[in-house]
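Sample intake sheet
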Amino acid sequence: MFVLELRRTRRRPAEELGLLLRDRGRWIAIGPEGVLASAESFDEALATLQPPC
């Protein structure tokens, strides 16, 4: 399990992005809104947790 967060900067407070869980060969991305994705790769699941620029 990976807990991901953005670090605080001078202009932006810390922000929790969510969790990435590995289950039966799939990566499950869980964010503040709930389950965001069930992906085959870590990178694909991580992309769903990226904050909008």
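Comment: The mean pLDDT is 81. The helical segments are 42-49.
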